[in-house]
Design a protein that fits this description.
Blueprint: H1 2-32, H2 43-54, H3 58-65, H4 68-71, H5 75-113, E1 121-122, E2 129-130, H6 132-147, H7 150-164, H8 183-226, H9 233-250, H10 252-275
Antiparallel strand pairs: 1-2
Helix pairs in contact: 1-2, 1-3, 1-5, 5-6, 5-8, 5-10, 6-10, 7-10, 8-9, 8-10
């Protein structure tokens, strides 16, 4: 009976440990991925969504939290272990957020090429200064992410990560770095790869508008040389802006296809973010 009482008394503590460590990995993802609501979502709602996602991996969390190694950890060990979980979630959330940032940057490049201001429209969800096409590209990326089940795939990847990378796996790393000795080089490499992909995606998505505007500039330059007396200078700016919008509207189908094709790559990078700490 005493042993049974001790077990029942330890259950609430074990559950709190499991939820706490799991939430330390899930909440940064909810915090950083704009499709969960971004800064416009109240703090309590973001914490609630993070805890809800944590419960998806409850069987693995409960098993890991009951490990004897966790009970032997001191304050430093708990801090390091919690920081490791936060780092895993922050890396994955940052990678997925880059998919939206790439679309937003592409819209900004297109607006810059057509001479539009960069503070004409607030960015979706954050309210920060942005540009019209940047907001449009961002919203289209968010719609595609939701349409293709991006949230579900991200939640499933998080649940799998609790099995592949148990929350107590770093219990012996009390004096190591938060990500573990083996995880940090892989995480740094992944940051470099994701940053390069951000630039590649932004330039690729904006390329049709930039090329069309460049060709228009060459055409207007040729016309100006043939008719030097024509006041083309005053017509160039509005024509450039209208042409940029026209190219975007005509190419929405191609833009949609490009965003759809690029999403699996970003989700694969997110999976690599989890795997980096195995």
């Amino acid at each position: 009976m005493p042993a049974s009482s001790e077990i029942h008394a330890a259950l609430p503590t074990t559950m709190l440990v499991a939820l706490g460590l799991g939430a330390a990995r899930a909440i940064p993802i909810v915090w950083l991925v704009p499709a969960f609501g971004g800064r416009s979502l109240p703090l309590a709602a973001r914490l609630g969504i993070g805890l809800l996602l944590t419960t998806l991996g409850w069987p693995y969390l409960a098993t890991a939290a009951a490990a004897p190694a966790l009970a032997a950890l001191g304050v430093l060990g708990w801090l390091v272990l919690t920081a490791r979980e936060v780092l895993i979630g922050a890396l994955v959330g940052w990678i997925v957020a880059l998919a939206f940032r790439a679309a937003e940057a592409a819209g900004g490049l297109a607006d810059g090429a057509r001479g539009a201001g960069f503070a004409d429209a607030p960015a979706p969800l954050s309210g920060a200064a942005s540009s019209p096409l940047a907001a449009l590209y961002w919203l289209l990326a968010a719609l595609i992410f939701l349409e293709l089940g991006g949230l579900g795939r991200l939640a499933a990847a998080l649940a799998r990560s609790y099995q592949a990378i148990p929350v107590g796996a770093g219990a012996g790393l009390a004096t190591a770095s938060p990500g573990g000795r083996a995880g940090m080089p892989a995480a740094i490499e992944l940051v470099v790869v994701a940053s390069a992909r951000l630039v590649e995606s932004a330039v690729g998505l904006a390329a049709p508008v930039i090329v069309a505007l460049l060709l228009a500039e060459l055409g207007l330059g040729a016309v100006a040389r043939l008719t030097p007396a024509a006041p083309l200078h005053f017509a160039v700016m509005p024509l450039r802006a209208l042409l940029g919008v026209g190219v975007v509207l005509l190419g929405l189908g191609a833009l949609d296809a490009a965003l759809v094709a690029g999403l699996p790559g970003w989700l694969a990078l997110a999976d690599r973010g989890f795997a980096a700490f195995q």
